[in-house]
Design goal:
Order of helices and strands: EEEEHEHHEHEHHEHEEHHEHHH
Number of strands: 11
Number of helices: 12
Largest sheet: 6 strands, parallel
Structural class: alpha/beta
Helix content: 40-55%
Length: 290
């Protein structure tokens, strides 16, 4: 399902954009379902901003300074509908033509369709692909992230990006208590990140957040997929917003130790600075020649 809207603007104050609102990936823990985001339609009924590209062209043409343009923090832009509508590809073409940098957060291997444009942007300025990895076990991954490619398939994407010299960042989030909060899971994901030579891994802790809207959906899915686990969550956490794994101290220690060992940046602030820093490579090359 989808519906069209006329948007008033496209870029946030931090130069992020949502070309779509809503998602079909079906991840059981999705925070974007929370009522605080005031999505006035069913989450699976995708809102398409039909004037998004015109708004973006206007916004980029009127910016005084070049910067990084981001997407994907609220809604994964590489939903199946994108293959039909193509707003992400049109936006990438504009970003390339106007000389801006780009970063995206996704779980989908559909991003490979745009590898040519991602490379062109990265050759001219900077392009960083951020990919979420939560669950090393493929069967468990298919349960908690049912309608999108699995971790192994995302790993293949990360390797292709590595070979194309496009820097990558992984979001190790969320980690679900009593499901994927194990040493085997964290170690497995970190090994994949090392093989794919990711620049950095963003991790805010071992747990997840639950609030009105996404809590109800999460518990409904726990009942469906993992009988009696909902009751354990309620007993352990009540109505808490921050749901932290009982194994968090050990797992965070393992996370930081392994990142050091693999040479992967694991300081969130350093990674966010990197993502926000615009770099003009042609200009850098000219300065080197001087």
């Amino acid at each position: 399902m989808m519906h069209l809207v006329q948007a008033k603007g496209i870029l946030s104050t931090r130069n992020g954009m949502n070309l779509y609102r809503g998602c079909l990936h079906g991840c059981i823990y999705c925070d974007s379902r929370s009522t605080c985001y005031h999505m006035e339609h069913e989450f699976e009924d995708i809102e398409v901003k039909e004037n998004a590209i015109e708004l973006l062209e206007h916004a980029l043409s009127h910016k005084r300074k070049k910067c990084m343009i981001g997407t994907g923090s609220m809604t994964d832009p590489y939903i199946p509908l994108e293959m039909e509508i193509g707003n992400v590809r049109k936006a990438l073409q504009l970003i390339y033509e106007k000389g801006f940098g780009f970063t995206v957060i996704t779980k989908s291997n559909l991003i490979l369709r745009d590898l040519d444009l991602l490379q062109k942007i990265n050759e001219k300025t900077k392009c960083v692909v951020q990919m979420t990895l939560t669950t090393f076990d493929e069967d468990l991954c298919k349960k908690i992230e049912p309608n999108v490619c699995t971790t192994k398939e995302r790993f293949e994407v990360l390797k292709k990006l590595r070979d194309a010299k496009i820097p990558t960042v992984v979001w190790l989030s969320p980690i679900l208590p009593f499901l994927n909060d194990t040493e085997e899971n964290i170690q497995g994901i970190l090994d994949l990140c090392a093989k794919a030579k990711v620049y950095g891994i963003i991790c805010f802790g071992m747990g997840l957040t639950l609030r009105e809207g996404n809590r109800e959906y999460f518990y409904e899915k726990l009942d469906e997929l993992f009988p009696h686990l909902k009751e354990k969550y309620i007993r352990t956490y009540g109505n808490q917003y921050m749901i932290e794994s009982p194994n968090r101290v050990h797992l965070m220690k393992l996370f930081h130790q392994k990142c050091e060992e693999y040479g992967i940046v694991h300081d969130n602030e350093q990674i966010f600075r990197y993502l926000q820093t615009f770099e003009e490579k042609e200009r850098c090359e000219q300065l080197k020649l001087w």
